[in-house]
Amino acid sequence: MTGKEAAFERFKGMLEREKLDGLLVYSRGTTNILRPNYFRYITGVRPVGPHNAFLMSRSGKTAVLIQPEWDAARVARQGRVQEVRGTADFTRDVARLPAQLGIKGPLGVVGGNEMTLDLYDGIARKHRIANLDEGFEEIALQRTEEDRAIARRSCEIAEIGFQALLHACRVGAREIELVAETEYAMLKEGADECFILMSSGKRNRAMHPPSDRRLADGDVVILELTPVYQGHFSQLCRTIQLGRPDPVLAEKMDMLKRAFEAGLSEVRAGAPVAGMCKAINKVVSDAGYGEWCYPPHIRTRGHGFGVGSIKPGGVLDEQNRENFRAGQVLVVHPNQFVSEVGYLACGETVLVTETGCERLTDREGKSGLFAVEV
Amino acid sequence: MYTLQPNLKLGRDVWDHVNMPAEEFAGRIERLTAAMRRRKLDALLLYGNLVNDYGNPAYVSNYLLRMSRGAVVILTHSAEATLIFEGIPRGIHMAEQVCAVGDIRAGRNMAAESVKVLQEKKLLPGKIGLVGVRHLMPHDQARQFYADLGADNVVHADDLVRKQRSVKSRREQDQIRRASRIVANAFKVLLEQPVAVMTPKAIEARLIREARMDGAEDIRVAVGIPGMGNWSLAPAEPIALTDGAAVIVLMAVENERYWSETLRTLVVRGNHLEVAPIADLEPLWQQFGKALRPGRKTGEIHQEMVAAMAGLKWVAEYGLGEGVGLGPYEEPTLAAGGAVALKEGMCLSIRLIVEDATLGAVAVGDTVLIGKGGAEPLRG
After folding, report:
1. Contact between chains at B212 and A183 (C-beta distance less than 8 A)
2. Which residues, 6 or more positions from A214, have their beta carbon under 8 angstroms from its beta carbon?
3. Class in CATH terms, A145-372
4. Is B139–A115 a contact, with Cβ atoms under 8 angstroms apart?
């Protein structure tokens, strides 16, 4: 039995336990770094159109309904579901679909919070709806070796992207050129798409979309580089000095590196997420920057990544009540505003293990301030 | 056309005041407030969300939704506009750089935040026109919205904005021309330069790189391999393309909020791509351009083109086209029975895809501007 077949069996088990007749997984066709992609997890398909639904009956019959109609051929080629239908009237047809699969009773819905009123009420008029987002994530959290391989490859692509960015990083280059070259390198390596935020200047205030600003001697370039590979995000956050090294900047980056390592030492199965965040904030606070460790300046010390589950969560902060579990993938990033040098980026992706964690980016643990000679 | 939505609009986020000056937005707000008065509305809420449906709030504010979030602009009789975006206050500073609206706020729940603003402006209870709420807003927010406003006080006013947005001003036409130029240049580079490993993924990567360098905000590429059984346009995959294979490439680019789309049939020649011969389609394409005249109804045009393709195997599921502008998919749609009359200044993304004995299928598509004499292809 493949990993996905096993997941299907667990979903059927969930329907039995919850006394539900069917499972409906909905997607507006978006991918979000802070949310799981339930539809992609269960179908293996990147949703294209504005409405996508996967349906499974308790007996195991499966179907996909998608808009636009022409996308049905692609979804059918993937071969993971028994029946694929395209529709020009999704709201009408999704309300009819459960009955066509023999589902008459209550329906577990995942991703229902993305539905519009007409869509949700159209289903609710025929079936009692139970929100199964949490239960779905619990099942998706059980990562297979194939899932881990995807996470590792995503991280390799991030490193390739960073090398391309370093190569493009020169005096006179526009921010947008750096992003274009980085994205190009990652797409060629198979990334689905990329999420990149950056900033350049003598003293950066925050990361933002790339601009037409040209790099100058002495600039600091900060970035969050986040490829998506087969639906799996990975991220590295790094700081580059262009030109003559600034000893103050080096000292502050060293402080953030210590904060990162302190945070990492708290990552292991069973340990609280909040503990990792407190360890990071303690190092930064002890260095005199506690004021800027919390909202509205800093919102999170990392993000969980995955396809069907992003546990321990999209926002990892001291209020997070989750404990780490083996197999979870997350970025740990003590990105920080430091008054003397501005906003700095420092973060890598790791895989949680029973005894600690495995570094998936910067595998050697050597990352720090990157220097580019002028 | 519908295309894969990215998790983030990766390109620049700029407001070029020369291309789109503040008075353009002021004019739109003035026309909408006049329409509000005619319908006796106390306020008009323009809602949008996700990376495709940002058009309603952007139309009056220039605010761009870069991720799958929501935003709303509230207009009042005094032509005051308030923008609320889903996010944290830290984003207000960045929004101010690109927005034509002075009052900018951040929040989590667009319905709840809108109600707060309406209460602050003493507009509740009152007749509130809603745009985009029914078709776009998540159900829990929409439900709360209707409850807070009172169902009797809500007027769905989507048509007000839809009408205005469907006919493009001269400046909007120019923005779409600029987006078209980026698409044209990306294809030009793709055809000129060798592709080391010939796969749809490599084609996508090259097109995106060129468009990004040219300043595109958002870029979509879909690729079809018509020689493959049961083919369709799809996200690019790293599968090898053999010499002589045909590839149908769709590229859509958003530049400074405005979209343009192009569809081309290419053939692999070693490590290069060539434009496929589409001589059979040329007369049809010419006819299509002439059919798109002001005053003609979309259904009539559809009927004419379907009749013209009688001897060919039309791949009908992709349709003939639809409006394009502040979204990659707008009204009107060129569909059977369509009753919308074309107007001068409308911009459409049109396409013809037919089966072909040699290549599997051939396709051509462009973004066109409806003028007095027919459609003008915007090919840069």
Report:
1. yes
2. A171, A172, A173, A174
3. alpha beta
4. yes
A168-224: per-residue pLDDT in tens?
A: 999 999 999 999 999 999 999 999 999 999 999 999 998 999 999 999 999 999 999
Contacts of B8 in chain A (CB under 8 A): 33, 194-196
Cβ atoms of B285 and B364 closer than 8 Å: yes
Residues of B in contact with A113 (CB under 8 A): 138-140
Give all domains of chain B, ordered by start, each with its CATH number. 22-165 (3.40.350.10), 170-377 (3.90.230.10)
pLDDT digits (tens, 9 = 90+) for B190-244: 999 999 999 999 999 999 999 999 999 999 999 999 999 889 999 999 999 999 9
User: Which single residue is written with the structure tokens 């609009």?
Assistant: B9
| pTM: predicted TM-score of the whole model, two decimal places | 0.96
Nearest-CA distance from B196 to chain A in Å?
A: 10
> Phi and psi at residue B248, in whole multiples of 5°?
-100, 120
Quick one: angle between helices B170-192 and B200-213, nearest 10?
130
Name the residue ranges covered by the structural domains of chain A. 3-140, 145-372
Question: Residues of A with CB below 8 A from B235's CB?
Answer: 46, 48, 192
| Cα separation, A149 vs A156, whole angstroms | 10
CATH number of this structure's domain A3-140:
3.40.350.10
How much is the ipTM here?
Answer: 0.95
CB B319 within 8 A of CB B279: no
Q: What is the DSSP letter of B70?
A: E
> What's the pLDDT tens digit per position in B251-296?
999 999 999 999 999 999 999 999 999 888 999 999 999 999 999 9
A contact residues 331-360, partner B, Cβ 8 Å cutoff: none
